[in-house]
What does this fold into?
Amino acid sequence: MNDVSRHPCFNEAAKRQYARVHLPVAPKCNIQCCYCNRKYDCCNESRPGVSSTVLSPLQSIHYLKALAEKMRNISVIAIAGPGDPFANPEETISTMKMAVQEFPDMLLCLSTNGLDMLPFIDEIAATGVSHVTVTVNSIRPETLAKMYRWVRYRRRVYRGEEAGSILSGQQLEGIARLKEKGIFVKINTVVCPGVNDGETEEIAVKVASLGADAMNCIPLYPVENTEFEHLAEPSKEMMRQLRQTVSRHLLPMAHCARCRADAAGLLGHDDLEAMSMIGQFSSLVVNKGEGRVRVAVASNEGILVNMHLGEARKVYIFEQTKNGYHFVETRNTPPEGTGTERWKELSDKTLTDCQAILVAGIGQNPMKVLQENGIRVIQMSGLIDAGLDAVYLNMPIKTLCRSDFTKCGESCRGTGTGCG
It folds into this structure.
């Protein structure tokens, strides 16, 4: 369970031999760090929170299979964002379960801020997750108040020291529970000069007392358009001294590459071809059934993709012909108020001949049900033809005018009975 001989992130000796892949299936985050700007589509920037795309669990497994054929030395499958795995628990756990079925000999790894981890520790342990990294930047609420703009816990937003107290409490309890399950725990601490650099040993002592196995002091990477963009990056000498201090209490790590959420390859030497591959799989049609040739559209008038699925009383059905795209018919969607059953009925009855659906917004529950039934979900806004081009002509998804991945429609009523 605690074997790190094949884990390049936990064992420096392994980094030249074994590769890891980060699957970007967790877009939502539950905290806002003062040093983080989660910007997508920046393939030239390597830092946590950055990803060129977001994959569904099924898309990620197809990508993983293709990557494993090309990269035979992959030993670790990880989820590290671009948000937080436990702010996206269904996607995270579903991906891990499918990954271990396909690749039972690979190590499963998660990297989290720990805020929402506790309710899922039993499940991830049962799934086979063996290594977890928890970012602990302080155990003092007053310091955490300076490092986080807000935290969202149990559907409520907290700020200041109250936020810091909640975050720290969840992290420390979570670390202890992880160790009860026999999971190898590494602590990441982002060293921000003048903010938390004097607390490193205090953190090390506390997490060591809870059983943490290793600690990784990461120098701040000043990011544009964040509160900490003007802070100086810690010197190499400062980092050397901090790691030496940490070594008195638990194993220090010094080879962190500050990886992207879609990193793949050897640590510090990401595979450029993998970056190209992942874009292809973000537009992959994951289809369980044969003969699905049509596309459904959540539209108000049949010209634009402009409706949230939860509000759509009907969908427009299109198909490709020799003379272009042909409108087939409209179909009524199942009535509201039945929760998950609504989306199962939509998949099993309404969209049986559809390979994809274009929507302006969608909840996580209907997205999961549709994808599990082989229906690709594209969130976008704009002309229907642009979305049909993506499906039928495999046009790059980034050329679409997409709405935010996690955004519900602005007119969404939020009754809880539609999106489930």
The mean pLDDT is 84. Residues 12-282 form a domain with the TIM Barrel fold (CATH 3.20.20.70).
